[in-house]
Each structure stands twice: as structure tokens, then as C-alpha cells.
Amino acid sequence: MYRIITDTSANLPTPLLQARGIGVIPFTYIYEGKEYSCLDTEAFDGAQFYGAIRKGRQVNTSQINPAAYVDCFRPVLTAGEDVLFVSMSSGISGSCQSARLAAAELKEEFPERTVAVVDTHGASLGEGLVALRGADLKDAGMPLEEAVQELTHMSKCMCQIFTVDDLMHLRRTGRLSNFSAIVGTMLMLKPLLIGNEDGKIVSFAKYRGRRRALQALARIYREQVVDPENQVIGIAHADCPEDVEALIAMLKADRPPKDILTVMYEPVTGSHVGPDTLALFFLAGENVRTDKLVPDLIDSVKHLPGTVKNNIPDAVKDLQGAVKSRLPGHRNEEE
Known about the structure:
By secondary structure, the protein is an alpha/beta fold. It is built from 13 helices and 14 strands. The strands form three sheets. It has a seven-stranded mixed β-sheet, with helices on both faces. It has a four-stranded parallel β-sheet with strand order 2-1-6-7, sandwiched between helices. The model is unreliable at about 175-180 and about 310-335 (pLDDT under 50).
């Protein structure tokens, strides 16, 4: 017997976690000088939280340390069960390595028991959907070792694409250079980003206008999703419910999925991507996380209206032109 445990980054609603028997360990964050965790999604006021960030409030986060994992896993091992821990990406947090250190420490204390750590190379529902699948496999009686193999393979096939409203949140957390973020913000660019095979976030396209970014998300889903009628896909948002409804309508118009799990970004991951982030999660081919797919993604969306070439020199030229045209004495070429 084993138990499925994940962390709060998985973004699964508390009632769903309880119904599926999935344990959870919390990330923590500092807000207005106090430390919090979000173990009860029903009590989280996302509109208030993201509204405060829009007004300039700062949120600081920290990874889960090995001691916290030991405290979480030990009672399960003491009860005679193994642990299958579904982790946030090692590419964006050191918490996965902390879980592995805890597993090694507990192996000395419980040599007959196993703590298996699955690095999803994802976050939010890119992690949460894997945890839910783990619960399915456990309920079906699949042995721990086989479940680890299947969840690892599932993680490789999980497409995680999203768009943000303000690039400066990604800059603050090291996802974009300061200059790139400033240029992108001034040009009102809406990037498309994807979680790659190492679990890191990479940008592969930019759009002028939110609606065009949503259309690009829907187009990538249409071209990359595998057997949509048999899978539950996920949407996570940081307080932008109208955009969620717009995206759902686009997805259902062509190749609709079996079901859509929609959640509000929990505060830790949400504070990194920022208010109005909208993310889409679904199963695709095995190469969806590799760098080899990025050119295909660019090619699939480059002809959409509003697409901006994905390099800063072109953006700088646009910005320089916009500034120059407003200088006294400047004459346009066509004048």
C-alpha cells in the first residue's frame, strides 16, 4: 500500500484532494509581514489577493525544506505505507531536491519502506493532473514502481502553456531579463510561455493584445492535444474569469475535451506569474516538452494576427521608432 502526496503548487481544490485521498504539504509565502500557507483553497480570496498585487503589494515565497518533508512523510511510513510524492518542477524550485533528501534520510529510519519522488517538471495543474492520475492508479491497484513509471511518462507528455498580463512579474522572479520585461511592457506584448523538458519556463511567441494570445493558446491545443475526448484538461488563472470563459469557448468549439478542471492560481505560484495569468494544461505527444517542438509551436501561431517576432532586437526597433516619432522635429519617411 502507498499514499499519494503532493504540494500546494499542484493547485488542486481542497474538496477534490479530500475526496481522492491525496495528502498535501504546503508552500509558504510572506504577505504584509506575515507568513501564510494555503491548505484550504475554499478560504482563499483570489480576487482580493491578486487585486492587492495589482496595486503594488509584494509577496515573497520560500521552498519547502527537507525537515518539513520528513515530518509529512514519517507518519505515513510509521503506519506501514509507502509514499508516492508528486512534486513541483525541479526546474523552478529546489523543493523537489528537498523531498529527495528527506526520502534518503527516512530510508535509514524505515529501510523496509519506500518514498518515491516524481518530478513532474511542472507546476499548478501540470502537477495536479499528474497527482490525480496517481490516485487513479493507486485505486486501481497498480504497484508503486509501475505507478512511478506511468506518472513520469505522463509528465513528459504534459503540455503546459500560458500567457501573462505583465512581464514585470516574471522579471522580478528571474524569468525574463529586466530589459526584456521593460521593452515588452512598454509595447504591451503578451507572451506565450511553455514548460520545457527540464521544467524551466521559456517564451516562444509574443502578441499585441490579450485576445490574440488566447487564440494562440486555443490553436496550440487544437494542433497538439491527444485524444481530447478521453482526457480532463486543466485551466488555471490569476483572477481573470472572463478570459477563462473565452478560452473554454474556443476549446469546446473544436476538439472539445472530456472535461475541464478550472482553478484559481494558489498564492505561491500565482505571485510569481502575476495577476491575470492564464494557463492551459493538457496531454500531447512525448516531444511536447522538448526544445525540438518549439519551432513547430512558433510555426503554428506565427501567421495569427498580432504575432510579434520573438526576439528583442525587433522589439527594440519598434520601441525606438515609437519614441523617435514623438521627438520634436521628427518627420516620418512618408511625409
